[in-house]
Phosphogluconate dehydratase
Amino acid sequence: MTHPTITAVTQRIIERSKPTREAYLALIEREGGKAQDRTMVSCSNLAHAFAGAEQDQEALKTNAGPNIAVVSAYNDMLSAHAPYYRYPERLKVYAREAGATAQVAGGTPAMCDGVTQGEAGMELSLFSRDAIAQATGIALSHAMYDGVLLLGICDKIVPGLLMGALRFGHLPALFVPSGPMPSGVSNKEKQRVRQLYAEGKATRAELLDSELGSYHSPGTCTFFGTANSNQMMMEMMGLHVPGAAFVRPGSKLRQQLDRAAVHRVSELAKAKARPLGHCVDEKAVVNAAIGLLATGGSTNHAIHIPAFARAAGVIIDWSDLAELSSVVPLVARVYPNGSGDVNHFHEAGGMGYVIRELLSAGLAHADVLASGADDMATYGEEPWLDDETLAWRDPGPSGDTEMLRPATEPFAPDGGMRLVAGNLGRACFKSSAVDPSRYTIEAPCRVFETQSAVAEAFKAGELDRDVVVVVRFQGPRANGMPELHKLTPPLGVLQDRGYKVALVTDGRMSGASGKVPSAIHCSPEALGGGPLSLLRDGDVVKVCAVTGELSTSADLSTRTPAPDPEPEDGTGRELFAMYRVMADEAEKGASPMMAAAGL
C-alpha cells in the first residue's frame, strides 16, 4: 500500500498534467506510427547512414535486426566520462550478440562544473543541459534507430540526455553509467584544508595536493552531488539495468551490466515494448523525487526534475517536492550529508537497499513501467556475478548504520528538502545537510552581486557578525544561474566562529552544498525587479526551515529595484544570450528550450 500522501501528491500531478501529458502521448504515438520500416526510406539516405558501418553494413542493409542509437557524452577531461572512450566498440559487440546493430548517433557537450566552479564558464553550465537536449535531438533525428543507449553521468548531462530522448519517446531507451572512481582523501580532511585555505592558513600547493587526493582517476567524483544523484534517480525511475549506478569502471561486473543494457534495449526494440515516453510517467517522476529526498541528494534536481518532467508532459513543482519531503524519511547519509562517500554507500547496500526499503514501506511506486527490468522489485536487489553470470540478490541488512538505515529507523523523519516562501519569493532549503539548531536564522543582511565581492568582504573582516548574506542577480535570466560554491568555505568559517549565518540567493549551490543554512534558487529572480533587488544592507531577513519562511521585516513596497547588471561577455557567454532571454523561472526548470517550445 503506497503512503496516502504520496498517492495524493501523485494524483494531483496527474490531474494537473492531463492536457500536457495527453499532448505528449499523442506526439510519441504519431512519431512511432511513422514509417519505421527502413526499406521505405530512400536508398541514397540509407547509403549515407550505412556507409561507415563496416562489418555491420550487411545487417543494416538487410534490416536483419534492430539498430540501436548510442548517444555519448564522452570526453576525457571529465573524469566520470573518461571511461566511455572504448564503450562504442564494446557496445557494438554486445549488440551483435543480441542480433542487433549499434551506431554512435551523435555526441553531446559534457562540461565539468568542478572545473568551471567560480569561473566565467560556470555561467554556461545550466544552459548546457538544454544544449545537450538539443544535441540529443539532432542525434536521433536521423530516423534510423529502434532503441537508444544514453552514455552520460554528470550534472546537466543526464537531465539533458533525458529531455532530448523523451522527445523521441516512442523508442525504448536505457542509460549506461560507468561508475565512480575509488575513494581518495577523506571528505572531512578535504573540507578541513579548504577552510584553512579560506582563512589563509594553508598554501595553494597544499590545497591542490588535497584536491588531487580526492579527484584522482577516471570515474565519477565520489561525493553525493548532482552526478551521483543523477545515477540514483535513474535507478528510482527504472532507467538503468538494476544496480548499475555505483559499480566501479572496468570491473567484470560493470562490463556485464553494460552488456545487459545492450541486450535489454535490443529485446525491447524487437518487441516494440516499453517506449521511453510511457516509462517516464507521473509515477516515475515522483519516484525520482522520492529517491532524491530519501538519500539527501542534490538540490540541483529541484530544477532538473521539473525540466525533464515537462519534456514528458508532466508538471511538478516545489510544493509537490516539499509535501513529499514531509513523509519520505532520510535513510542515507552520504557526504556532504555524512562522512562516507558513494563507494561506502554502495558497499553498505547502496541503491538496492534504499529501493527495497522504500518499496517495502510503501514509500515509492512499485508499479513504474521500468525500462531496465521487468518490474521495480529487481531494483531492490543488488547485482553480482554468479560464476561469471550476472544475477541479482537481496542486499541484506545495512552494512553500515551510520550510512544506511531502514525506513522504520531513519536518520530523520523527513526528506530534508523544504520550501521556504514569503515576501522575498520562493526558494529551496536543504535541511538534511544542516544542524537543526540552525534551521532558523534571523539577522541583518549584507547584499552582494558577485561571489568575489563576498570573498573580499570576508577577508576584510566585514562579515564577522550574525549575517544573512544575499547574493543576487545570479538567476537564469541574469547570468545563467551559476553554482556559488566559492561561498561555502568562507561562510562555513564564519559559522564555525560562532556567528549565525545564512545564505539567500537566486543562484545555485547544488549537491555539494553543506552545513550553512541556505535559501537557494530564489524565484522570482532579482533581474527585472524581483524581491531580492529591493533589499538593502542592514534589512533584517529571516530564513526558517521550520515554518517555511523567507522574508524581510523591511517595507519593500516603496523601494526602487537595484538596476539590472549588464551581462558579461567572453568565455562564450555571449553565445548564450538567447538562452538567458528565453529562460523561465527556476521552479519550472529554468529551461529556455521548454519555454520557447511552449511545453
